[in-house]
Amino acid sequence: MQSRRTKFIFLAVLALFVFFFSSDFGLIDVEKTAIITAIAIDKDNDLYEVTAQIAVPEATDTNSENLKTQITAKDTTIGGAIKNLGDYSGWFPKLAFCNLILLGDSLLEDNVIDVLDYFAKSLRVQDSALVALADGKAGELISKATPLDNISAFALQKIMLKNVGFDADIASTDIKTFCVGHYSLNSSALMPIVKVIKSSENQTDTGGGGSSGAGSGTSSSGGGSSSKEDKNNLFDARTTALFVKGKKVGELSPELTQTYSALYKTFEGTSFSVNDVDFKGQKTNYLLSVVDCRPKIKLHATENDLRLSITLKLYCKISDHSADGSSEALSQNNPIPEKVKEKAEQYFTDNINELLRTEKQTGCDFMQIKQKLYRYNHKQYSRYKDNYLSVLKTDVNVSVFGQK
């Protein structure tokens, strides 16, 4: 018994030594490691232009803000451009903390999966890293700063990964989800489009700064330095891009994106407006907050019929309204008027029908109808797999409930 225990302890110690000494001490040297928080990718002729946003922790008695810097490199491949980031800066690009991949619109001429495949297959980047499309050049967008976040990657993560209680109005996706959709039966995927909007106040920062590299040849690099930086920027990612086989085929407006979230994401806490409702002889605007959301989507396939049934039940409360001389919005038990319910039901019914029309027009099966046909109606799959969108019939039923 004693001999067996001794052997076990020896093997455990040996395993610890193996794990300890097999680590690469050259890659954990903080002074030579660049912590990349986001990567922006653009296309410059036949070269990929990769811009890495690097967080630079620097706290002093007078400045406790995290600085940032951008380093840009070019190459004929994504991996080669990332390798050049380290070659021209002398810092090892650490991608384990990269949580955002931002694609420039110059990549839309090609198949975007050619870019995302590298990150999906690379063990250096986590599969949960967010993917988004920039409205313009990704390298320029990632250099923007907001009034509350000097590092744009952190600001974008906040608006795309909202906790329950915030509005579910962004169709956020990550590397794994996009690639799974691309390689699925319907070859369809989506991602949010990030746009820069100017905030109302013009604010500048005299603390941190950043710069991007510029040069000739196949790569370029640059470092960051302290300088005044315009922080009069905010980000909007409520518009959604639709992809089929890696090519962009259409977009969903912010209203349609919100309705899509009601069907496929956690929708509790989301607010939406119901405008121009007749209240005591005047047009009134209502703001409703969703307390509970219960969607149900079923596909029924027979030899003669292919029908999609969508049922959406929303339990809401009044958060505010614009009626004069009334304090009903402040009441804890404020029932929703029938006219408001009817208009809210019509709003979501119209949006769901528009989602279905967009799916048929673009051919992007973002509602995963073909997968439902294959999984749950497999006997009819061969009958409808090539024309399911053209023969599809739909039944949409939306119900809005309030406090009684």
| Helix percentage | 25-40%
Number of helices: 11
Shape: globular
Gap between N and C termini, in Å?
Answer: 72 Å
Strand content: 25-35%
Number of domains: 2
Secondary-structure element order, N to C: HEEEHEEHEHHEHEEEEEHEEEHHHHE
Radius of gyration: 26 Å
Question: Structural class, from helix and strand content?
Answer: alpha/beta
Give a count of the beta strands, DSSP E runs of length 2 or more: 16
Largest sheet: 10 strands, mixed
Low-confidence stretches: 201-229
Mean pLDDT across every amino acid position? 83
Please describe what this structure looks like.
With 404 residues, this protein is an alpha/beta fold. The chain folds into 2 domains: 29-254, no CATH class; 267-404, Nutrient germinant receptor protein C, domain 3 (GMP Synthetase, Chain A, domain 3, 2-Layer Sandwich), CATH 3.30.300. Helix content is 28%, strand content 32%. It contains 11 helices and 16 strands. It has helices spanning 2-21, 78-89, 113-121, 138-141, 152-160, 175-182, 254-264, 338-362, 369-376, 381-384, 388-391; strands at residues 33-44, 47-56, 67-75, 92-94, 100-103, 130-134, 173-174, 188-197, 204-205, 229-230, 234-244, 247-252, 271-279, 282-301, 306-321, 393-401. The strands form 3 sheets. Strands 1, 2, 3, 4, 5, 6, 7, 8, 11 and 12 form a 10-stranded mixed β-sheet that branches. α3 packs across α6 (175-182) and α7 (254-264) crosses α8 (338-362).
